[in-house]
Automatic annotation (TrEMBL):
Keywords: Membrane, Transmembrane, Transmembrane helix. This is DUF2628 domain-containing protein. InterPro entries: DUF2628. The chain crosses the membrane at residues 30-53, 60-83. It comes from Shinella pollutisoli.
Amino acid sequence: MATFLVLIPPGAAAHDEKARFLRDRFSWIALLLPVLWLLWHRAFAAALLALAVQGLGLAIIGHAGLGAAGAALLLATGLIVALEGPSMVAAGLGYRGWTQDAVIVAEDRATAEEIYYTETAGTPERVEPSLTASDAGRRHGPMLGLVGFGEGR
């Protein structure tokens, strides 16, 4: 089973036919080619940041005794993009006015679309953003599977 984030364009109603389905999963291509993966998904700011970090990693590899640190930096960049790439794409769309309409668990995209568009009275599981005082300065939700600590530790 896969989890799909359903995002709708600015000003669109729920179940709009222009909804975008993002599969929230690990991507091997993003692990191997993080900058290209981000560019393909139009996450330009994240791609620029990944390019800078990978450039730093490549520069560090060239120095004697720091090769392992540079390789670790390259691997870490790929892992972060592979694990959190869909969240980065969703955050980028959110900055452009898109809203997350639903989260659907389905076998594949076709099934997720069928579930999303055939719901009548009830809608798919809604994700209502809640902004607490501790989240006021944060622009996005927690990443890397970490939970927020708004209620204390």
